[in-house]
Amino acid sequence: MPRLSQPHLLGIKNITREDIELIFETADNFKEVINRPIKKVPSLRDVTIANVFFENSTRTRLSFELAQKRLSADVINFSASTSSVKKGETLLDTVNNILAMKVDMIVMRHASAGAPHFLSRHIKANIINAGDGTHEHPTQALLDAYSIREKLKSVAGKKVAIIGDILHSRVALSNIFALNKLGAEVTVCGPPTLLPKFISKLGVRVELDLQKALAWCDVANVLRIQLERQQLKYFPSLREYALYYGINRGILDKLKKDIVLMHPGPINRGVELSSDAADSHHSIILDQVENGVAVRMAVMYLLAGAAS
Ligand code: CP
């Protein structure tokens, strides 16, 4: 059975290009499966997976749960807001109690960067990072790159602009690692206050002008303004942000070329994307969501049984 080079998926930074290609080839098979009338395979029968979410989620959580059910895994769901975390239980005690119920794999979202890395040093189960603070969101980057590969036939050589709140975005960092490993060219674009100072050291171009970034790219991956992570004011108002960095149908039509428009969700409609752009023929936003199930099936299938 093929395996990833690591027992966990903690980030894109520490997996190889070969791992990513193996995940994509495996996801191709699972995508075929989930488009059949009978969408289920027995691949993870007798594997028990806990989805442990300390932060809100719609897409990632449902996508993981559906992927687990399509693979015939047993699934339990934990939400911090309705758990004994509220009574002061620690992360490690919480996870060790879940593992005592004979759980094989943990899918975790946590507000603290490095939380899944910390767990991986203390527990035996496979861990998948479903988003750790502003650090990484590896399965989002995998499904994003997989969706580019599906739409444009390959990722290598493609020009991808990542636009918006790069500073607070785990999606941006994981995308940069994945796209670099797969041979794409990457430009980040946003207001200077939302671009980390170290960003150009990651092998990306920096462009402050939205029109120039769009004229350059084949793919625009537009990120949400993460107001919940912003303790300071990084721009004068949402209205002004939308004026300088919001993408609408008029801007796309003026490009006179077909770019692919992506967004990891949830969208702030009318801020980073207008509805007439988000719902236009440029958009592959719902294809990303569909592909998320197949990509996550592939990741869990390839990790199962590989606990350190
Ligand atoms: N893209 C993403 O992570 O969305 P959720 O926060 O809804 O899971």
Description:
The chain is of the alpha/beta class. It folds into 2 domains: 144 residues, Rossmann fold (3-Layer(aba) Sandwich); 149 residues, Aspartate/ornithine carbamoyltransferase (Rossmann fold, 3-Layer(aba) Sandwich). 38% of the residues lie in helices and 15% in strands. The chain has 11 helices and 9 strands. The strands form 2 sheets. It has a 5-stranded parallel sheet with strand order 7-6-5-8-9. Strand 1, helix 2 and strand 2 form a beta-alpha-beta unit. Helix 1 crosses helix 11, helix 2 crosses helix 11 and helix 5 packs across helix 11. The longest helix has 19 residues. It is globular and about 55 Å long. The mean pLDDT is 95. Phosphoric acid mono(formamide)ester binds next to helix 2. Phosphoric acid mono(formamide)ester (CP) binds next to helix 2.
List the ligand species. Answer: phosphoric acid mono(formamide)ester
- Count of distinct strands: 9
Number of helices: 11
The CATH class assignment of the largest domain is Alpha Beta
Tell me the CATH architecture of the largest domain. 3-Layer(aba) Sandwich
General form: globular
Order of helices and strands: HEHEHEHEHEHEEHEHHEHH
The CATH H-level superfamily of the largest domain is: Aspartate/ornithine carbamoyltransferase
Instruction: Please describe the biggest sheet, giving its number of strands, its sense, and whether it closes into a barrel.
Output: 5 strands, parallel
Estimated helix fraction: 25-40%
Bin the strand percentage. Answer: 5-15%
The domain count comes to 2
Summed over residues and divided by their number, the pLDDT gives a mean of 95
- In terms of structural class, how would the helical and strand content be classed? alpha/beta
Numbering strands along the chain, what is their spatial order in the largest sheet? Answer: 7-6-5-8-9
